[in-house]
Write a structure and sequence with these properties.
CATH architecture of chain A: Up-down Bundle
Number of strands of chain A: 0
CATH topology of chain A: Four Helix Bundle (Hemerythrin (Met), subunit A)
Number of domains of chain B: 1
Helix content of chain A: over 70%
Radius of gyration of chain B: 17 Å
Largest sheet of chain B: none
CATH class of chain A: Mainly Alpha
Structural class of chain A: mainly alpha
Oligomer: heterodimer
Number of helices of chain B: 8
Order of helices and strands of chain A: HHHHHHH
Number of strands of chain B: 0
Number of domains of chain A: 1
Chain lengths: 226, 198
Amino acid sequence: MSILCAALMLYGFFSGLYLAPADYQQGDGFRIIYIHVPTAFLSLAIYAFIALNSIIFLIWQIKLADILAKESAIIGALYTFIALISGSLWGKPMWGTWWIWDARLTSELILLFLYLGYIGLRSAIPEERRSGKAGAILAIVGMMDIPIIHFSVEWWSTLHQGPTLAKFAKPSIANEMLYPLLAMILAFALFYVVILLFRLRIEILKRNFHTQWLQQWLGPKLRGPE
Amino acid sequence: MPLLFFVMVISLFPMALGVEPHLLARLAPAIIWVAVVLALLMSLDNVFKSDYQQGALEQFVLSPYPLSLLILGKSIAHWIAIGLPLLLLAPLFSVLLNLPFAGVGVLWVTLLLGIPTLSLIGSIGAALTVGLQQGGLLLAILVLPFMVPIVIFAASGVAAAGNGAPFYSELLLLAALLLLTLALGPVAISFALRVSIE
C-alpha cells in the first residue's frame, strides 16, 4: 500500500506540476489545487470517520474503533492545517490577500479548532477508557454541529468559488487537470491510511504491553530490566 | 463574579476604541455578544465542579429520576443565576455603547434566545472536563467553536435591526437552535457526566 501511495503521489505531482496546462486565468498558480483540494476534502472526511468510529465505540465498545478515532485526529488536524496554509498561499496572488473571513475559510478554521479541542480533551484525561468515551461524545456532538456551523458561516459571508468537483455533475475542469487531481486525492487518502496503520500498530503495542502474547512475541527481541 | 467580569469587559472597549459614538454604535452588538460569551465561559467552569467535589453529582447519577431532567433543572438554575442578570444588564449597556434604540429590543430577544443555548452547549463541555485539572481553559477551547453560529446569528440580527433591515430570520434561527439544544443538550450532558464520574 505504501508503494501504491508513493506511485500515485509521484504521478499526481508529475502530471499536476508538469503535464497539466497552465490555467488561462490563474497561470501556474492554480497548481496549488493539487495539495489544497485533497487535504481540504480529507480533513472533513477524516472528521466524519472519527465520528463514525466514536459511535461504534460507544455502542459496541470496540477498542479498535477508539484507537482509530484517536490516531486519526492528529493526521486530520495536520491535513486541515495544510489545507488552510495552501489556501492562504493560493489566495495571495488570486484574491490579493492572505486571509479573508470567507465562509469556507472560516469553517475550515473552526474545523481545525474542533480537531485541536478533541486532541486536547483526549490528552487531558489520563485513563484510556474515560478518555475514549469523552472524546467520542465530543466527536459526535461536533459532527452534528458541523453542518450548523457551515451554514451559519455560509449565510454570513462567502467569497469562495463553488466546488469544482461535484459527485453527479460534470466536473468544471479539463481532463488533463482532473486526472492528476483525482490521483492526488487518492494518494493523500492512502497516505492517511498508511500513517494511520503505523500509528495503530504502535498504539496497540503500547496498550497491550503487559499482555502475555505480546511479552512472548517480544521475548527474544526485548527484555525489560528485571 | 461573571457579571462583574461582563461589566468590566464592556467598559474596556470604549476605553480601547475611543469614545466616538458612531463607531461604538456599529460595534455595540459584537461587543455585547462577545462579552456575554466570555462571561458565560467564566461561569461554566463552576456549573458541575462544586457538585462533583461534594459528591452530589454521584447522587444525581444514582437517583431514580432521569439524569437529563435533573440536568435541565441545573441549567435553569444556572440561567436564573447568570442569564437573567445578563438580560437585565444588557439594555443598560447598550445605552452606554450608544446602540440605536431599534436594536435594543432585538438585542434583548437575541439574549433571551441565545443565552440558554450557549449555557446548554457549554454545559456539555463542562460535563466532559469536570474532573480535570486545568479544566477551565480546556473547556473554553472545547466549546467556543460550537458557540460560533449563535454569536453570528445574534450579532448580525442586532446589527440588522440597528440599520433598519429585516431581522426575523436571525431570530427564528436562534429559536430553532435553542429548541434543538433544549431537546438534545441534556441527553448529551448526562452521557458526558456518566463518563466523567465512572
